[in-house]
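Thread: Newbie trying to understand structure tokens

Hi all, I'm a second-year student working on a class project, and my supervisor (Dr. K.) asked me to get a predicted structure for one chain before our next meeting. I've only ever worked with sequences, so writing a 3D structure as a token string is new to me. If someone could post the tokens and maybe explain what I'm looking at, I'd be very grateful. Here's the chain:
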Amino acid sequence: MTLIEIMIVLVVIGVIFGFALKGLGKVSKTKLREDSMKVAATLRTAYNMAAETGQHHRVVFDLEQQVYRIEACVGQMKLVRTDEEETPDEDKLEELEEKIENAREQMQNAQPGTLAPNTSDMVPEIVGADSPEAAADAAAALAGVRIGAARCRSPQTPDGKPDKRGEPEQLEAGRGILIRRIYVSHLRDPVKNSLVSINFFPLGTAEKAVIEIVNQEGDQYSLLVSRMTGRVEFRDGEIDVDDFMFRDGAGDREEERE
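---
Reply by user tm_fold:
Sure, no problem. This is what the structure looks like when written as tokens:
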């Protein structure tokens, strides 16, 4: 084989390799778009569930695990701008709820006029609460357990069964696709590697937010959640986050937050 023939072969191989890389890039961006649309669909589902049930819902993202899920919240939710996401002591809450349930069963089975064993620390505000959530709130206050402003758990259907729409979803990190950052109104800084929630309210409003989803090639899709309508917009590429987060429904610039 002559030198010219070798050069021609190398050129052909280079052209083929270039087309292959270009094709892989298109596939990767297609997968990025698919995963981004799944996240957008989950946000829209949470909005619809809040409107349908008249109950506050939220989408919780675990950026360390790249997992997200819908939760339904009981109790008053007031968003306060802070430095980090408020998270309850879930393990201690479960212990309290189990203790309350056992105490109620023992009191129901106790003889009239007697105090059931192991219920001496169950004050009337706990055992006589209108709901398990109210009982747990009272017990948590006495025990010093952090519960947050509202109780948020996996959503249920009207007959009390788990709502499949609340099942966790996960991005496939093996494909190099991940949620890079999330901006929300109740946090001062974007979240990169911890828990963060985006909230949807019964009257059709939502918490303003921006989600950045990227792949290894540097492609990005941005999901924008509108405050006034709960609408989820899908953008190809980066956006001016500050311009979106600090602009009101009429398009006017808002005051900088403290």
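A couple of things are worth pointing out once you decode it. Strands lie at 57-62, 67-74, 151-153, 169-170, 178-184, 195-200, 209-214, 220-225, 232-236. Residues 90-143 form one domain. Feel free to ask follow-ups in this thread.
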